[in-house]
Write a structure and sequence with these properties.
Elements lengths: L2 H27 L28 H8 L42 E7 L6 E6 L3 E6 L12 E5 L3 E6 L2 E6 L2 H6 L3 E2 L10
Parallel strand pairs: 3-7
Antiparallel strand pairs: 1-2, 2-3, 4-5, 5-6
């Protein structure tokens, strides 16, 4: 079969298909001719295989036709769930603050001071009768341990013991009554 014959066969086939398509479209668009008569039907007979047919309710169609067409297409979103009730806060537990032991009272007295331009000294005695002569910033070698001299003035001395400051003033009566036991750490004063 040559090319010319193949073209002719394809042309004839295309023409037949076009004619069949036009005929099908014409037939589907053609109106129904003739009178249509409604024949009343006899009451439906039921067989064992088929359930009975119920008549169509025409009011349902009227209800659908009466619906407004401008309503939203979707249902409104559901309302948000109610907020949960806040839980009552538990009462804070009362924890008694542990009592911090107070540092022992300083049982020291100021016996005297030596005020000089270069370095001032304080003479301090403890309850045992021991005394010590120290300058500013030095620790006393008395009981209790850890007492540091912060400031020396002519009639009073400020001491630091366990983070607390204490002021002792010159006790003229104690200087005369106490026996002298020296713990000067190498510093001695000559008595006149």
């Amino acid at each position: 079969m040559d090319v010319t014959t193949q073209r002719r066969c394809l042309g004839v086939t295309a023409a037949c298909l076009t004619a069949a398509t036009v005929g099908a479209v014409g037939w589907s668009l053609r109106g129904i001719e003739g009178d249509v008569t409604v024949v009343p039907s006899s009451p439906p007979t039921t067989t064992l295989d088929e359930p009975p047919i119920e008549p169509i309710d025409a009011t349902f169609d009227k209800a659908i036709a009466a619906r407004a067409l401008r309503r939203p297409l979707f249902d409104p979103p559901p309302p948000p769930p109610p907020a949960p009730e806040p839980k009552p806060e538990p009462k804070p537990k009362v924890v008694e603050k542990p009592s911090t032991p107070r540092p022992p009272a300083l049982e020291v007295t100021l016996v005297g001071t030596i005020i000089e331009a270069e370095q001032s000294l304080a003479i301090v005695a403890d309850a045992n009768g021991d005394f010590d002569v120290k300058g500013i910033g030095e620790s006393l070698e008395l009981s209790p341990q850890g007492i540091t001299i912060e400031t020396i003035e002519p009639e009073r001395v400020i001491l630091s013991f366990q983070g607390r400051e204490s002021t002792i003033e010159l006790d003229r009566s104690a200087a005369a009554e106490r026996p002298a036991r020296n713990r000067t750490g190498g510093r001695r004063r000559n008595k006149p």
